[in-house]
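Students often ask why we bother encoding 3D structure as a string. The short answer is that it lets us treat folding as translation between two languages. Here is a chain of 661 residues written in the first language.
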Amino acid sequence: MPVASVYDQLTELATNYRWSWSPAIQALFDRLPGGPAIPGQHPLARVLAVGPGRVEADAGLAEEIARQHALLRAELDAAPRERSVAYFSPEFAISETFPQYSGGLGVLAGDHLKAASDERLPLVGVGLLYREGFFHQAIEHGGQVERYTEASPQFSGVTDTGVRVRVQLDGHSVLVAVWRVDVGSVPLYLLDTHLPENSPDLRNVTDRLYHGDREHRLNQEVVLGVGGVRALQALGIHPDVYHLNEGHSAFLLLELLHDALAHGDTFPEALENVRARARFTTHTPVPAGIDRFDDTLVHRYLGPWARRHRIAEDDLLALGRMPSDPPAVFNLAAFCLRLTGEANGVSRLHGGVSRDLFHGIERSERIFSVTNGVHARSWVRHDLQETFDEHLGSGWATGVESAWARTASIPTEAIRRQRTAARGALIEYARAQALSAAPNLDPAALTIGFARRFAPYKRATLFLHDRPRIEAILASAERPVQFIVAGKAHPADHEGKALVRELLEFVGDPASRGRVVFIPDYDMAVARLLVAGSDVWLNNPLRPYEACGTSGMKAALNGSLNLSTLDGWWDEAHDGRNGWAIPSSEADDLSVRNDLEAASLLDLLDHEVIPLFYADGRAGTSDAWIARMRESWSSLGAFLTASRMVREYAQAYYELARAPI
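And here it is in the second language, the structure alphabet:
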């Protein structure tokens, strides 16, 4: 095999998303002629623009390219060749340069792939390729406006496998292209209907994420599930286990049933065959978040399948019934629970909530939990990674407990410098991006971050419920406090959009003192700045509606202290010393409950959080605050990593599956 040229090596480095969690490879791209990258630009676009001649003319640059390429190839050569686990998800957040995600579900899926690469798990990802991705958020006339832009896969490190499969959608045959994305040693295959062979309507099946009417959504989910199984078969990949990340890929179970029946199984035997190979993770703690379809719509898709296999359609529809649903509704979560061998929630609390939510469905009692984790190298600020590597050893990033036990070895002044630099970078960005002038933002002041989807249950504006009290906190010159907020509301979520408007009204009010700012168009890049630069990570969902809430995990790894209701992961992780718990009210009236919990939040700020930050009597991070940061790191660090999470999945899910038929 001929030796790859330096330029070919650079192209491979830019094509494999291993760069997204490698500071060394990112620094390499910054050395390319033309200066640092444009924000949001994929490195492959820069490599193609530079061309081979200018790269190979720089001997030092060429040497570093060869070195990083050799490290990548060694990592890939050590990875397993056979792919025994197929991980299906409707969205994957690998990088902000490839916006195929809307929020937490996609970020979790992306981190799952990255950790699987780190852990050398024999896993392959399957999703959809959305030409316009999720929306970009603009603020106009005091509210959110959605804008979509079309991306070209060829400039996003995506390669066409040449594989095409066909899927039936309500009697129409749609051709589906299969693209490949390399995420370290893990291949991610994305399905795309945007082909000239398809009619305009069928081309648009994979146009946007979480967009369109119910039939459009159903079409996407059939392409993901049925098309995904067929794509793997066409690629020669025959997994031992299929892992469904939420119910959006439920129709892969239908395709596995088809294969088992074609193999000669009876219907009951086929059900057991599928259960032996399928695993289901639910992220939904509320009924409204579950995909449901009316029988009149589902009949057009399931009816022909049932007739082909001579199975009563009512028997098939019964697999998607949930006792609490209205009649004649097909529930994808119920379908997944009945056709998978194991199922889990994404935190210990959520596991119990899920057992209650799905009570009445056979097999729901065996729902257990695997608490989510986050991919540390993707989310921890680069200079802090260097500090951890020096004092904790490299095992901190993959959840080695003995590494996190050494946090006392990090010098106090080194931590203070890290905090000051991270907070300063966030404030600089906030000043540049905020919608209104923010002259009172202070790089030495206590900075509280809040960033997530503006769903009503997440209560983004809870801290504003007592205006006189929050205004008094913001007015303090001796102990300044500032809030930096980001997040999007789903285009169809009018209550969420109202929360955005409410927050923006306060931001523009002189009473905010310029110390509350909103950063528009929240994405992974904004998230990294926020979780690294915030001293406090605020999370106040209405318990128990937060399934996990991984943004607080990212913040904690960066040294931010969590101030949260005991919901999601914080319910099992808070020990009284590693952050603060906002007490939850038992009031039945939601407005009363919100007022009581807002008062508890402001009490904690007034009496514990602010005094601790300013305990040394000066601006900046006090010694007592740093002591609490150490407590957070030592008690939480190993637990928060995605490597810990995928190891639990490997033991509880992947190793229990039997070989495919």
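Translate back mentally: The first strand starts at residue 85 and ends at 88. Keep this in mind for the problem set.
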